[in-house]
Amino acid sequence: MLVVLGPGLMVMLADTDAGSIVTAAQSGARWGYSLLLPEIVLIPAVYLVQEMTVRLGLGTGKGHGALIREHFGMPWAMVSVMTLFLSAIGALITEFSGIAGVGSLFGIDPRWSVSIATAILIGLGVSGSYRRVERIGVTAGLFELLLIPAAVFAHPHPAQLWHGLTTIPAGHASYRLLLAANVGAVIMPWMIFYQQSAVLDKGLIPAQAVPARWDTAAGAVLTQLVMIAVVVMVASTIGRVHPHQPLQTVQEIARGLAPFLGGPGARVVFGLGVLGASFIAALVVSLAAAWGLGEVSGLPHSLNTPVHQAKGFYLIYTLIHVGGALLIFSGINLIRIDVDTEIMNALLLPVVLGLLLILESRALPPPWRMRGLHKFAAWALSAAIIAFALYTGVQFIA
Question: In the chain, what's the furthest Cα-to-Cα distance?
Fold first, then answer.
């Protein structure tokens, strides 16, 4: 288990990125505990989706982009890469904005904090070792867990928690929009590309499928515990006293929590949690994009390959980070980009999940395919998510 542990934890800790934390904070401030039940329901949903990528990687020995190109042709492969890049670009901007926001909490100029983070991320990626990337990424991501005790220190009221768990105000358009953002914050296109490639780059073999599933399950629980913790922490504090206070940036959330958790304490706990989330997510997102493009184009695309043997892969990885940093420095309006990115992810889910489900039933050898209750649960949850994404898309466009 310890040998296999990693790809699932990496992708799931990255799932609770800066944009997801802002989305969860807005959920708690605006709707209290009413979004807790959807967060819990999303635990099996994200596990079932990511578990398919594990079996596809181990059962075929190929990445997600390569399988799409092989079974659907280059046009669909390009469509899948476009959805990946749309999701990755939006995510990377939110990660760098999260890093800039944490730096600002401690008086560091965003140009310095983002530049240093970009240099570290590029240096880590071109180091020529998947295992080194994974160890450092998981270590950074574990700082997110600081947000769980912070939720306990916010002293949520048990009766109000229970009331929120049993209340779903789906008749309100703003609730449905935040619900869509939370779905998009949990199941993202880049997660599918990343984990399928990661199990291969780590060198896992089919005999390790069971511990790889446990790795994914542990990550699914952890990522949603962090999301639940943020909802509870904000609902118990800001949402109780100032329910309409703007919470669109890391700085605004930290300032809102300061009177309840203590000024320095709020900055340190929330800052470290967001910094860890932003760092690991920036790493995972950029690798997913570089892996996906490498698989579709046929370029060498392993982190274990020296730079001179995979120049195209490392160039893509580097340019993604540089481009994200430049967008931050350009002065782009970041106020709404966190929640809007998660809504965009939800709108992309019909394509992403549709291709994933078809590949699972077509590309895998029969013994590796889902059967019985497992298959029914995966298809039913995916169908519900796709239907909700389509409905939300129509409402959002209208």
Answer: 61
